[in-house]
Amino acid sequence: MADNPARRGWLGHLTRRSVLAGAVASAAFPAVAATTGAATASPSSATVPGLRTARATGTTHRVTMYAEALPGGLIGYGLAPGEATVPGPLLEIVEGDTLEITLVNTTDKRLSIHPHGVDYDVFSDGAPFNNSFNEPGETRTYVWRTRERTTTAGRAWLPGSAGYWHYHDHAYGDHGTDGLRAGLYGGLIVRRKGDLLPDKTFVVVFNDMTINNKMAPETPMFDAVLGERVEWLCIGHGNMEHTFHLHAHRWVDNRTGYLDGPNDPTPAIDNKDLNPGSSFGFQVIAGDGVGPGAWMYHCHVQFHSDGGMSGVFLVRNEDGSIPDHAQEAIDRYHAGHGGHGGH
User: Fold this and answer.
1) Does 341 score more than 70 pLDDT?
2) Could you tell me the superkingdom of the organism this chain comes from (predicted)?
3) Mean pLDDT across the stretch 243-257?
4) 152: confidence class by pLDDT, cuts 50, 70, 90
5) HSE of 181, CA atoms in CB hemisphere, 13 A
6) Which of 84, 131, 183, 285 has its CA 20 to 30 A from that of 20?
7) Is the four-CA dihedral 274, 276, 282, 283 of positive or negative sign?
């Protein structure tokens, strides 16, 4: 489960500090590996030949994750000892696949891992309610299954597992409250066969008044090159209601963020509610129609953005360089949020 640098959003020397843009390891299993040629699963992808698409194999993927204490009272999930992050690793599979997660609890806290959007039995629930958790120092395996859309005689179509989901602790504190506050959460993407694959995926978690347990100017700074296909996975946690807004880019309010065809009436949006326990995702082309530059993403509840719930999405020039006006905007962002820090 090696880290995929192309998915991390690693920044260069953009400010007077070195910034790691909310980077997390990505467990993109072979079922999500790129295939080339025209996609055939949806009209939107079939019209664009040569794009990378997801393929299904019906495979059981096994991964070991480690829950580890981090500085500042945080706790994170990682794919190897010493590699825990907040958010935890981005997990990606395709409908029909199974994911077996062996969670090693290296902390002195009772904790677990609980998923949204997939199938699991009571023993993999990740909740004390079903006696499904890791005691301090304990190792436990959780099994998550996925399925494709189905229909049976006399019944409507039933949804599959494809979607932009997430996982989190459900055992440290009542219902995992303390675990979520400490950073025990991460992104989970279940793709449908033929879904377009992005060049980069960014995970953004609104957790009370923080983004990925940080406040501006320490919030994640994401970057892409003009024209890259960028995917956003947005997750809500904590006790507060939020909205997610991305400047200069818009998406369609459905599962993928793309229209299914020329007559699809689904509205385009650039702002969406992001409340505790909810998640959504979408893909955009970086700088499409607006060019390179530094663009904000933030909570559109005004006192939340004023309080530090904002970050920067940098769209570089095609050659990878940073536009002068973008660097100036980043400098203003850091100067204007000097009073805020980490969680």
Assistant:
1) no
2) Bacteria
3) 96
4) confident
5) 11
6) 285
7) positive
